[in-house]
Amino acid sequence: MKDGFFCVATAAPKVSVGDVEGNLTRIKELISEANASGADAIVFPEMSITAYTCGDLFHSSTLLDAADSAICRLAEFTADKSTLVVVGAPLRYNNTLYNCAAIIYGGKLIGFVPKTYIPNYNEFYEKRWFASAPTFPEGSVDIHHRAGVCKFGNIIFNFRGVGLGVEICEDLWSPVPPSTYLAMAGAELIFNLSASDDLIGKYDYLTSLISQQSARCIAGYAYASAGFGESSTDLVFNAKLLIAENGSILKRNKRWETGSQLIMSSVDIEAIKRDRLHNSSFTDCSRRNNLPVTIVEISDDNPAPLGQAIIRNVKAMPFVPSDDADLTQRCEEIINIQVAGLAKRLDATGTKKLVIGISGGLDSTLALLVATRTYDLLGLDRKGIIGVTMPGFGTTGRTYRNAITLMETLSVTIREINIGAAVLQHFKDIGHDPDVTDVTYENSQARERTQILMDIANQTGGMVLGTGDLSELALGWATYNGDHMSMYGVNSGVPKTLVQHLTRFFATTLDNTKTREALLDILDTPISPELIPASADGTISQKTEDLVGPYELHDFFLYYTLRYGFSPRRIYTLSKLAGLCQKYGSNEVKRWLSTFFRRFFNQQFKRSCLPDGPKVGSVCLSPRGDWRMPSDANSSLWMKECRMLIEESEI
């Protein structure tokens, strides 16, 4: 295992029915390939030593003796390998034949796990040959095999700090799969050895089943199903190799190939352990459902090579679906959640007036779009939405024009109030030099705008709709009691990278050409609070991402901090896998990672008194629900690790 990742391979050799020698040769080839690639473990299909479709040949001592011999030679073959092997084979025990998974490592046969549920319906008549797994008070017993004494029964194998469990084909399709009990007993990665024939629609159902079981078990799930070479007398078998983790499919093979196949992916064991620690229902269920299980410790005689790679696709933007169809569906769902939340708040308060500060920036644009859709849903006149643009010292012509265009084309009420004179009077009152563009200069403008919005809400019997997003809340990039405050924060659960995609989604779905053009220009405008005077050429001089760092990075840091509680070092490792270090440079990623943790801790006091707002995803910073942290929590542990990262040279 490397950096909390366990690299697993699933393989489907091209088998020949009853040809144990030929099957063993191809299995060895795949083991060598996986071992050379740094796999911690490899799983093969059900009965891959003999092939699954041997029929009554399973009652032939010739075939069974050859299978026993193959297990012995396979154990010898692994003596110098770093990869644990899980392979399907028949086993005779107490005058009974079992469909088993053989676990082999470091030249030794470690144990056999028998299939629990034996099908006897439709085209499957396994009960003609195999018995269901026996139960033992201690979970397993010692048996004597030609390859040596080993365990037989219900077993969890502890290997490189990971609990490994095994179930076989039909077990997964049962009402309560054995993997459920294995996961509750400590298995973090489940292997499934299968021989599943192909029928119309079955693959999609199987994929969903694997995904769902990995989610219920909060586990990794490595599935290997028999492929080309199995008998086609009555059925067709196509290799199906899938690796899942906690509800997500990490890797799958290309189907309908005629040769042997192998796929690999690294399962995030640290993330699995964190989710189990965080999920009290999982722990409570484990306490109520005990099953006798033997824990077998596998000594690591051949540890994984130091240069072992992490084989895993890590998304640079974890909040944003990469597939266009998924993105469209996700955008619709998020917008509907925002709309439903706002609709309920309007209904509960009995108000028909919303007051929104419109700056011509991304966040206020999204809030306005959600507001108009909410009013349409409730059958309210959009004129009840009062859009207030409040030009200040840093407002540029570009953002002002976009704000006006947006409000005009969306048919909301427009109010324009220049805050310049009021802020200058305030500077005079408190004795601040207006030529000093410091934090007082900036925050005075933000608080003046919030005061105006609140007073208009009082004036009209309405409520102020907040526009700040999740990323700004994480960084504390908001003026306390300024734009930090509202009566309902409709964007509070939406990170900046997703705000951009939601705005683009609106741009592609709205019919009005002028609205669409304004939205596209807003998307193209640098993110800025516009609190510092514009440049000589009238363009934005204060760019947020120059000051606090790229939002793409901060959203990445935010996701893995809140969703999994990962350390700075592990987040940095993931950023390399996601290609962010290549895009921004390792030193820049480390620098902004340090900024993120510093601001995340220092700015908690702003999050402790946030207004209500809808949660839209798995990550949220509401002080009433998802994130409860003292405002004076000490960040020294995290900052120390960030400094260590910065001081380290890249190899």
Describe the structure.
With 651 residues, the protein is an alpha/beta fold. It contains 22 helices and 20 strands. Strand 1, helix 1 (20-36) and strand 2 (41-43) form a beta-alpha-beta unit. Helix 17 (551-562) crosses helix 20. The longest helix has 26 residues, at 324-349.
Backbone shape: elongated
Helical content class: 40-55%
Largest sheet: number of strands, sense, barrel closure: 8 strands, mixed
Strand tally is 20
Strand order of the largest sheet: 6-7-5-4-3-2-1-14
**Compute the gyration radius: what is it?**
30 Å
Concise synopsis of the structure shown:
This protein is of the alpha/beta class. The protein is 41% helix and 18% strand.
Which helices and strands occur, and which strands form pairs?
Blueprint: E1 5-12, H1 20-36, E2 41-43, H2 61-77, E3 84-93, E4 96-105, E5 108-114, E6 140-145, E7 148-153, E8 155-159, E9 162-168, H3 170-173, H4 178-184, E10 189-194, H5 202-216, E11 220-225, E12 240-245, E13 248-252, E14 261-268, H6 269-278, H7 280-288, E15 294-297, H8 324-349, E16 354-357, H9 362-378, E17 385-389, H10 397-409, E18 413-416, H11 420-430, H12 439-460, E19 463-466, H13 470-475, E20 488-489, H14 496-509, H15 513-524, H16 544-548, H17 551-562, H18 568-577, H19 580-584, H20 586-602, H21 604-607, H22 636-647
Helix pairs in contact: 1-2, 8-9, 9-14, 10-15, 11-12, 14-15, 17-20, 18-20, 20-22
